[in-house]
Amino acid sequence: QVQLVESGGGLVQAGDSLRLSCVVSGLTFSRYGVGWFRQAPGRERDVVAAISRSGDWTYYADSVRGRFTISRDDAKKTVHLQMNRLTPEDTALYYCAARPGEPLLDRRAYPHWGLGTQVTVSS
Fold first, then answer.
1. What pLDDT score does 91 carry?
2. What are phi and psi of 108, to 5 degrees?
3. Average pLDDT, rounded, for the chain
4. Residue 35 CB: number of other CB atoms within 10 A?
5. 95 pairs with which residues across the strands?
6. Taking a C-beta distance cutoff of 8 angstroms, is the pair 24, 68 a contact?
7. If residue 38 lies in a helix (H) or strand (E), which one and from where to where?
8. 36 and 94 Cβ atoms separated by less than 8 Å
9. pLDDT by position in tens, the chain (length 123)
10. Which of 12, 23, 110, 120 could join 97 in a cystine, given CB atoms 3.0 to 4.6 angstroms apart?
11. Alpha-carbon gap, residue 6 to 54, rounded angstroms
């Protein structure tokens, strides 16, 4: 049984930082690419960041590049998203997702999802 469990969300002020974590179980972690997605009310669920199986390749949406960092720890089967200099536009429900092979940018390519963790940034 594949499970992805996100944690680390919360309510913060603009300019603050959060570190999200996604613990993965039930699969061979090193064979899966992982992405972080977010969805705000009335908005589409869009990719925020993604990381390759080896951890050597990463992708960031333009809106977060330079502020967010994605990483993975194969020993702990965990993916992190370090979020710095947060703004109210970052407010959303954040999901991690995994797929066999290398990551893609389309949410429809991911068969495994967590339930999400809420990030709220006040001004």
1. 98
2. -70, -10
3. 97
4. 27
5. 37
6. no
7. strand 32-39
8. yes
9. 999 999 999 999 999 999 999 999 999 999 999 999 999 999 999 999 999 999 999 999 999 999 999 999 999 999 999 999 999 999 999 999 999 999 999 999 999 999 999 999 999
10. 110
11. 21
102: DSSP letter: S
- Contact between 79 and 46 under an 8 Å Cβ cutoff? The reply is no
Is residue 34 within 8 Å of 22, Cβ to Cβ? yes
Q: Are 4 and 114 in contact (CB under 8 A)?
A: yes
Rounded to a whole number of angstroms, the CA Rg of the chain reads: 13
C-alpha neighbours within 13 Å on the C-beta side of residue 80: 11
Which residue in this structure is represented by tokens 């908005």?
43
Distance CA 15, CA 52 (A): 28
Q: What are the beta bridge partners of residue 120?
A: 11
